[in-house]
Amino acid sequence: MKLLKVTSILFFITGLLWSPVPMALGQDQSKQNPIGTIKEYRIERSVSEDAAECIECHAKESGGIVADWAGSRHAHVNITCLDCHGASPADSDVSKDHLQYDKTRISGIVSPRDCSRCHPTEAAEYNRSKHANTLEIIWKIDPWLNDGMNNEIERVTGCEHCHGSIVKVVGGEFDASTWPNVGVGRINPDGSRGSCSSCHTRHKFSLAEARKPEACGQCHLGPDHPQIEIYEESKHGAIYHAEGDSWNWTAAPGTWTPGVDYRTPTCSVCHMSGVSNVPTTHDVTERLAWETQAPLTIRPNEFKPYPAKTDWSQEREKMENVCLSCHSENWTKGHFARFDKAVGNYNDNYFKPMKKLIEKLYEKKLLSKDKDLDEELEIDMYELWHHEGRRARFGAAMMAPDYTWWHGFYELKKRCMEIEEKAEHLLQSQKPAKVFDVKGAGGDTTHEVEIIQ
Ligand code: HEC
Ligand code: HEC
Ligand code: HEC
Ligand code: HEC
Ligand code: HEC
Ligand code: HEC
Ligand code: HEC
Ligand code: HEC
């Protein structure tokens, strides 16, 4: 590859935006933009001729992409389009179509393996996380998939948007049922797992964006995992909304400091960012002492489909250390003592007794074990742990009393009444429950993930 000492490229992108400061990275005050007419990007630096060609043509073809990239840390440190999109002839995801525009081989997909060339630590942590491995996990345990209870289009437009797809390339083109996709556990054509752009959207790859709760709230919301709503309800979230605009979101990695750069934690602070003696992590299972999304709450190392290699008491200590940067020991210990009791209350007084009752109905063949989620009581039991049971536990973990009680324990009580009522009816009538037939809305039960492994 030829390296030009200084390649001067001048781009003009017409638009209505006016910027008082020239957008040039190598700033030249004498060439300021005429007000209100054009926005100018001047990239003057050492890049190879091949890399310069991408920028030049794409400034015309897709100005928005070049503008985002030009404002990123990557552009500032000379990381170009080619560094991320460049592909070798052996790669299965080379775009055949693109060869008509440029002789250099490129791919539209940039996988964690591509990022790992320069960010090995983040990529390794992410690679072992539940985020990156979620397709394997859900195919091991999920009844919608394993019993064929939903169909392809429901999965593609629903589950896979958040969890990720298995990206397929057919004849040099992406298969539209698997692409585009930026789900956390996407399986890429190079075999790597995940998508860094789930949280760092291209082409700014901004730290500020990932540190804000909205980055997580795109997936962590709704009846079964309302973490963003829970955060909104908490005092932490209220203060974020009141004052967040004035916080310093762009502090360099490892220097983002509680009390100095921000006053209350976001999702990233508690789960990922480096805080005092707790290092930054891209494995979100760290700092957790429970599996509060599971039917029966267990420890992370007891989660059979993907046992964590962590010791829950050490992880609890890490989470407590995050709190201790702003709170006292008493405040922090008091919070966790109450959370742990709420977990016990859910396990012992709601989940276990109802599970026992449902098992009795299976034994007496009043419910059928054939498929899950096709009988009303199965849906009731599912919602008990998957909806209100999670909300009660998450609300208690993350300081949201409305979720703990009104959307949580209150709804649990109501659900138990309904389950007992319906169970009694079946036991009295001795007539098996009605089985719902999903007909055309049923789906494939092939474990593609295992085929790929
Ligand atoms: C002469 C113009 C030209 C050059 C040079 C060029 N591209 Fe493109 N590129 C295009 C056009 C046109 C498209 C298609 C845009 C569309 O589909 O709307 C495209 C598409 C792409 C895509 C999306 C592919 C996909 O499958 O979605 C990527 C990534 C890309 N280019 C990267 C690059 C890189 C990296 C380089 C430099 C090695 C480069 N381009 C050089 C014109 C060019
Ligand atoms: C730091 C790595 C990185 C750099 C640098 C980079 N890209 Fe990308 N690009 C990505 C990622 C990630 C995606 C999203 C695809 C994915 O999730 O794998 C993407 C997607 C694209 C797409 C398809 C997006 C769409 O919405 O259709 C185009 C086109 C593209 N990039 C062009 C460029 C051009 C042109 C440059 C240089 C100005 C560039 N990229 C620089 C990582 C990068
Ligand atoms: C060729 C090397 C290279 C590749 C490939 C690369 N990066 Fe980077 N990245 C860098 C460098 C260098 C920095 C700047 C570090 C600094 O500011 O000290 C950076 C910074 C970042 C930052 C911090 C931005 C900020 O605001 O401080 C993020 C996030 C990031 N990269 C994500 C990604 C992702 C995601 C990919 C893959 C899609 C990727 N990078 C691919 C070299 C690379
Ligand atoms: C809006 C995004 C979104 C959609 C759509 C979605 N999920 Fe999830 N799913 C999540 C999140 C976030 C979690 C993590 C829950 C937690 O830990 O609080 C999760 C958790 C799970 C789990 C539990 C994993 C574990 O470790 O125990 C399974 C199984 C699952 N989802 C399957 C599915 C299936 C199957 C579909 C489609 C029928 C689906 N999800 C649709 C976001 C989504
Ligand atoms: C679940 C969301 C999420 C995903 C997925 C994710 N990141 Fe990050 N990333 C973050 C957050 C949040 C931060 C900010 C941490 C902090 O406060 O410094 C960050 C920070 C970074 C930084 C700056 C270093 C630092 O310590 O802050 C780099 C580089 C980076 N990520 C690269 C990647 C790469 C590469 C991938 C894919 C392998 C990836 N990220 C996937 C959320 C994510
Ligand atoms: C694109 C969707 C998506 C985004 C964005 C996302 N997550 Fe997740 N998250 C998931 C899914 C899906 C799971 C469930 C994985 C599983 O257990 O199979 C999950 C699980 C988790 C877990 C539970 C891990 C465990 O061991 O049980 C935590 C904690 C978490 N995410 C935190 C975050 C944080 C913090 C952010 C933002 C910085 C974030 N997530 C962004 C989809 C997402
Ligand atoms: C004040 C700190 C704090 C904030 C802010 C916070 N969390 Fe949490 N989160 C926790 C604690 C503590 C737990 C329970 C940890 C345990 O298992 O002991 C938890 C549990 C979770 C879980 C359940 C993991 C599992 O599988 O049991 C998910 C998912 C999650 N948080 C995501 C998020 C998201 C997304 C946000 C932002 C919208 C967020 N959290 C904001 C502290 C926080
Ligand atoms: C960056 C500083 C910071 C961190 C880190 C932090 N908090 Fe807070 N927290 C605050 C502030 C500020 C308030 C508001 C205090 C007030 O009401 O005067 C608060 C409020 C609270 C409240 C009161 C909620 C209410 O509605 O009354 C609880 C409980 C709490 N935090 C627990 C925690 C726990 C547990 C952690 C760690 C998982 C944590 N905090 C991490 C700053 C922080």
Model description:
A hairpin with a 2-residue loop joins strand 3 and strand 4. Residues 1-36 have low confidence and may be disordered. Helix 1 (49-61) crosses helix 2 (63-70) and helix 12 crosses helix 13. This protein has 453 residues and is mostly helical. The longest helix has 35 residues, at 329-363. The protein is globular and about 80 Å long. 29% of the residues are buried. It has 19 helices and four strands. The protein binds heme C (8 copies). The site of one heme C (HEC) has 16 residues, from helix 1 and helix 4.
Largest beta-sheet characterization:
2 strands, antiparallel
| Low-confidence parts | 1-36
- The proportion of strand residues reads under 5%
Give a list of the ligands: heme C
What order do the strands of the largest sheet run in, or round the barrel if closed? 1-2
Number of helices: 19
H and E order = EEHHHHHHHHHEEHHHHHHHHHH
What's the count of strands? Answer: 4
CATH fold label of the largest domain: Hydroxylamine Oxidoreductase, Chain A, domain 2
Say what oligomer this is: single chain
Report the CATH superfamily of the largest domain: Hydroxylamine Oxidoreductase, Chain A, domain 2
